[in-house]
Amino acid sequence: MRVLAAMSGGVDSAVAAARAVDAGHEVTGIHLALSRNPKSYRTGARGCCTIEDSNDARRAADVIGIPFYVWDFSDRFHEDVVEDFMSEYAAGRTPNPCLRCNEKIKFAAVLDRALALGFDAVVTGHYAQLATGTDGLIELHRGIDHGKDQSYVLGVLSQAQLAHSLFPLGDTTKPEIRAEAERRGLTVAHKPDSHDICFIADGDNAGWLEEKLGERMPNRGGDIVDATSGEVLGTHRGTTAYTIGQRKGLAIGRPAPDGKPRFVLSIEPVSGTIEVGPREALRIDRISGIRARWCGTVPSALDATVQLRAHGDEHRAVVTVTDAEAGTVEIELLDPAEGIAPGQAAVIYDGTRVVGSATISATARSEALR
Which residues participate in ATP binding (predicted)? Predict the structure, then answer.
């Protein structure tokens, strides 16, 4: 097959491209320029968005012996990922930009262009596996390295996208990938992984959002209120500095009557009100989801597990599709979760297989948890 290897400049994508060559594919490497000004998002070699990363990707392509190009997706990335991230936070939600990037950029914009140019598939360095099911559909499964498994951020992919994707690293652990890169003579063999949001230079999400949003925020400050008594405990500089489940940085000034710490329970960006309360109030067992995306056949209802954070625990759940056309689901967690915020993704699994995902629109507690 003619395949396009998305090369971020990191070790994973470099080895994925090399393995695609070993598999007999005709491989072309591309690096995505996600910012016209590389320093506008971050500096330092961290896995994307920098000139250093582009150079690392080019050197890896030279060692592997494949053609290499840089594709400018800066406008699309800013509109579909960065603007979406800001808008979600301004609305009091907590988005995952990696899912949005996979959905809108790597497996939509890039894949569309690749197919238009005559390529058969896009290969990436994600730790996930593909298999053909008994129904003939392509299934997305977890990678064998539990600590590096990235199936969660791929839960937005459709059957059509999976059919044109390759994930060569899913059957390998990260230490094995680094050792392989060293054997292949790839200079990125020991390059550090990126753990922060790629377009926020110093990892200070709150400061970055405050600077970028500016007057677009409906309310740049407000009260911190006790959820039980309604008492105003303090004030804050803006809702974007907070997320559901946060404990540190509340600056309330005095402890709760029982001496236990308080946590952020809800965020209202219009009024600027942040409600805080005890940890047990964070426990939820009901989730409403919107924008559901399915990797294969749309289920009506299923017993499943649900993962609510990129490397979070799995929760046993009953998932009901309430409106397939509108993309809405209801999830009953048999194992309650804590600190889950609207905007996060609920990725649904049947064993190791990814069934699909939904964006969390609301959470609730049943009477059993009250």
Answer: 6-13, 32, 125
